[in-house]
Design brief:
CATH class of the largest domain: Mainly Alpha
Mean pLDDT: 81
Number of helices: 18
Number of strands: 14
Strand order of the largest sheet: 8-11-12-5-13-14
CATH superfamily of the largest domain: ABC transporter type 1, transmembrane domain
Largest sheet: 6 strands, mixed
Distance between the termini: 65 Å
Low-confidence stretches: none
Subcellular location: Cell membrane
Membrane topology: Multi-pass membrane protein
Structural class: alpha/beta
Family: Belongs to the ABC transporter superfamily.
GO molecular function, one term: ATP binding
Radius of gyration: 36 Å
CATH architecture of the largest domain: Up-down Bundle
InterPro entries: AAA+_ATPase, ABC1_TM_dom, ABC1_TM_sf, ABC_transporter-like_ATP-bd, ABC_transporter-like_CS, P-loop_NTPase, Type_1_exporter
């Protein structure tokens, strides 16, 4: 909650204005019962045939019936107007705060290392940016407004009650303090359940996101029942924690109401005795009973608001866990750039581990000359993709260094390093939009003509023209209204349009048929000409023309050479290659 308060630092003038409005509204509303009581006393005087003038505040103010009624209406109107003003101000403050929080979350996600996303489900992170921020927006506006108004009202009423009659005020004060104490105990009890409920909601979003994104796989493997059981388990947890938190919050109000009712009964009985003995006027006791009722409502509101703030705290905890996560180091001061990228890449005793103590890359070295096509092969888990991730600085090496044209990539900003590479991954990424927009992703400055040229070069143009609206054909989320192979062709077209000095192809043709693969291979050869290219492939037939092949096993390069040289060595590569033809 302290961190949440830091988001309000620029809004303190408006918060103070809202607080002043609440205090004045509270003070004004407390005068309404006085004037209403004076009006009742005036009616009593008139009934007895006396003057309707009533003396208030020790003779400081003398009012007739119509004056009392007018002032009662005016004080009620002022109180309502100021309550509206402070509500308006606080809504604006909280909406600006949550707007800034969303911006900060979006900026933070762009600075987080990929290793952070290895620990959390995407649905859980999405829940923090949507559900938790919305919870703060809704609960904070309501709670701050109520707490300001309620504390001002309680303080004002108690002060006036003590001024008017201290013995009756003591009864009301005891009720107030007991109610606040009860509220504090209930809030503390419900806090852990609100925290658990927020976490469970994140788990639910993560589960739903996974199941819906992989609904085809779920159905193919008949996993529906198991997925439903997981859903029910999370749903049960949400029900249990939400029920407990809401039940505890719910019973707080009737418990508080019980204590305020006791005070109401005590004041009514004692006040009735004083009226009967002539010590008090009936209008006075009406005023006091109204105050007793008035002080009960803000006390209950404070308890309810404190309970609602537990939801705010639980959501804020999840948001600040993300915002306080360690970002990638700031590299704005790194100015090293390559004026002309030749593509000379060196790996010097590179070491890396995802988990400390478990090395994935165990100290390999390689020297890739400008313009070479480098194929990286090896069994699953050998470190092929990890090698490329290190080159792109998606992860940082734990030992050794990687240089491009003699410059350590750590001396350049990540954006600078990545601007040298075009990349096509095995997992295609398509967003909702036209085919042209998808191909132009990252190359917005390119013309429609250049988009078509890139598509032709990638053997994509023919299938695009067969679709309704051609390049303006609208792809849905993940491009599920076209085939996997067609999605792969679009991502290859995207890399061709980017026209970067170096290329990384990670199983780029894994989802296309043999005929299309041959066509793409021809286009790739044309694209890679004169450029340094890194090709990760499992089908060894696709990398026969590579200038050099790195054979990886257990995080090291164990063999290197061209296709014919490696076959002549009759080593691990030859074994991998020949295994393709074994029955």
């Amino acid at each position: 909650m302290r961190q949440l308060g830091s988001y309000l630092s620029n809004s303190w003038p408006l918060i103070i204005l809202a607080a002043i409005s609440a205090i004045i509204a509270g003070l004004t509303s407390t005068t309404t019962p006085i004037f209403a009581g004076a009006a009742l006393t005036s009616i009593e005087y008139i009934w007895k045939g006396q003057s309707d003038v009533v003396s208030l505040f020790g003779g400081f103010l003398n009012l007739g019936l119509y004056q009392s009624l007018t002032l009662a209406l005016v004080s009620a109107a002022i109180s309502s107007s100021l309550n509206y003003l402070q509500g308006y101000l606080l809504i604006g403050i909280t909406q600006k705060m949550t707007y800034r929080m969303r911006v900060d979350l979006a900026d933070k996600i762009n600075t987080l290392p990929l290793s952070y996303f290895d620990k959390y489900k995407f649905g859980d992170i999405l829940s923090r940016m949507t559900n938790d921020v919305d919870t703060i927006s809704q609960t904070l506006t309501q709670s701050i407004s109520e707490i300001f108004r309620s504390f001002a009202l309680v303080t004002s009423i108690l002060v006036i009650m003590f001024v008017l009659r201290w013995d009756l005020a003591i009864i009301a004060s005891v009720s107030v303090f007991v109610s606040l104490y009860v509220a504090g105990r209930f809030v503390k009890l419900s806090q852990k359940f609100f925290r658990q409920a927020a976490k469970n909601n994140g788990d639910m979003n993560g589960h739903v996101e996974e199941v819906f994104n992989g609904h085809n796989v779920v159905k193919v493997f008949n996993y529906q029942e198991r997925a439903k059981k997981e859903f029910d388990e999370i749903n049960d947890r949400i029900f249990e924690t939400s029920w407990k938190s809401q039940f505890i919050s719910g019973i707080m109000i009737p418990v508080q109401f019980f204590f305020t009712n006791l005070a109401y009964i005590a004041i009514a009985m004692y006040g009735g005795y004083l009226v009967a003995t002539g010590a008090l006027l009936s209008g006075f006791i009406l005023t006091y009973i109204q105050y007793t009722r008035q002080v009960a409502q803000p006390i209950q509101s404070i308890g309810q608001s404190a309970s609602v703030l537990q939801q705010t705290a639980a959501s804020a905890e999840r948001i600040f866990q993300l915002l306080n996560a360690e970002s990638e180091p700031d590299e704005t001061k790194k100015q090293k750039q390559l004026k002309e990228v030749k593509g000379h890449v060196k790996f010097e005793n590179v070491q890396f581990s995802y988990v400390p103590g478990t090395e994935v890359i165990k100290g390999f070295s390689a020297d890739i000359k400008p313009g070479q096509m480098v194929a990286i092969v090896g069994p699953t888990g050998a470190g092929k993709t990890t090698m490329v991730n290190l080159l792109m600085r998606f992860y940082e090496t734990t030992g050794g260094k990687i240089t491009i044209d003699g410059v350590d990539i750590k001396d350049m900003s990540r954006d600078e390093v990545r601007s040298y590479f075009g990349m096509v991954l095995q997992d295609t990424w398509i967003f909702e939009g036209t085919i042209e927009e998808n191909i132009r992703y990252g190359s917005i400055d390119k013309s429609p003509e250049e988009v078509i040229e890139a598509a032709i070069a990638a053997q994509t143009d023919h299938f695009i023209k067969s679709l309704p609206d051609g390049y303006k054909f609208m792809l849905n989320e993940d491009g599920l209204n076209i085939s996997q192979g067609q999605r792969q062709l679009i991502t290859i077209s995207r890399a061709m349009l980017a026209n970067k000095p170096m290329l990384i192809l990670d199983e780029a043709t894994s989802s296309v048929d043999t005929r299309t693969e041959i066509l793409i291979q021809t286009a790739m050869d044309r694209l890679m000409k004169g450029r340094t290219a890194f090709v990760i492939a499992h089908r060894l037939s696709t990398i026969k023309n590579a200038d050099v092949i790195f054979v990886m096993k257990d995080g090291n390069i164990i063999e290197q050479g061209n296709h014919n040289e490696l076959l002549q060595q009759n080593g691990f590569y030859a074994e991998l290659y020949n295994s393709q033809f074994n029955n």
